Amino acid sequence: MRRERDRVALAFGSVFMILGVVFLLDRFDAIDLRPGILLPLLLIVAGAAVALSALTPSREE
Amino acid sequence: MNAEREEMVRQEETVRREETVRREERRGWTARLVVGVFLVVAGVAWILNELTDIEVPWRALVPVLLIAVGVALVVGSATGRHPGLIALGIVLAVLAAVGTVLPATPIAGVGERSAAPAHFDAVEDAYDVGIGRLEVDLTAVDFPDGESVVRFNVGMGELIVTVPADVAVRVEGRAGIGEVVLLETTGSGIGVDEQFVDEGFAAGPARLVIEARVGMGKAEVRR
């Protein structure tokens, strides 16, 4: 039986994982996350979360 | 016929109810697992920090926890929405973003801090103030040949660094929101990132590199 997933939880989970990795790289100076990069990055991941939640099959469907 | 249909409806309802109960149980299980594992890891790290020479990278704590919450949500998406974990993730993401934008958090101290080291050994690698004013006078320091790097971080407030006249300097200044004044270079606004390099810096026997960061406020380096 195919287990249906909650698209909101899936989208937020994916975004949190991506953000966590980015912040972790910044903490160890692997990348330089200055405000001019951080703010557009947050826009991108917010947009990705919305798009992902729209595309991922919902458990209600 | 009606009795059979009623029986079928009753059975479907029972199955649905049992499935709902199972989902609720699994949902609570996911959140408890994340919180439990985090507490165990934090406790072990704390003990290691106290009893051994192992340096625990506390600055990685929030991003690692954010990743853990993300994994738990992706795995747990099969059992429900988990609004508690989503709320926890949002709080952690905001904390991580603030920690990135502000070079020093309020934990680094609130108030005024000033220092005027008299010799090179008294110069710290980094000076931090969370909220307030940081003023460091390096004019009395006789910097040795080679490159010396000193970092200054203020979360919110004002930073003033005075450098010796006889040392070649390279200054990198950054402000999340505010103003930087680096000897002859200035900048202001959002995401300010400026640099000033003395002529002949590369050839100088004693070279001083200053990294001045302010989250919100003003950073000034002067002679």
Structure notes:
The complex is a heterodimer of chains A (61) and B (223). By secondary structure, chain A is an all-alpha fold. Helices cover 69% and strands 0% of the residues of chain A. In chain A, helix 1 (7-27) packs antiparallel against helix 2 (35-55). Chain A is elongated, with a radius of gyration of 14 Å. Chain A starts with 6 loop residues before the first helix and ends in a 6-residue tail after the last helix. With 223 residues, chain B is an alpha/beta fold. Chain B is built from 3 helices and 6 strands. The model of chain B has no long low-confidence stretch (mean pLDDT 84). The interface between A and B is medium-sized, with 30 and 39 residues.
Features:
heterodimer, A: 61 residues, mainly alpha, 2 helices, B: 223 residues, alpha/beta, six-stranded mixed sheet, 6 strands
Radius of gyration of chain A: 14 Å
Roughly what is the average pLDDT of chain B, rounded to an integer?
84
Summed up, the helix count of chain A is: 2
Tell me about the largest β-sheet of chain A: none
Topology record:
The complex is a heterodimer of chains A (61) and B (223).
Chain A: H1 7-27, H2 35-55
Chain B: H1 2-51, H2 61-76, H3 83-101, E1 110-115, E2 126-137, E3 146-162, E4 168-182, E5 185-197, E6 206-222
Helix pairs in contact in B: 1-2, 2-3
Outline of this structure?
The complex is a heterodimer of chains A (61) and B (223). Chain A is mainly α.
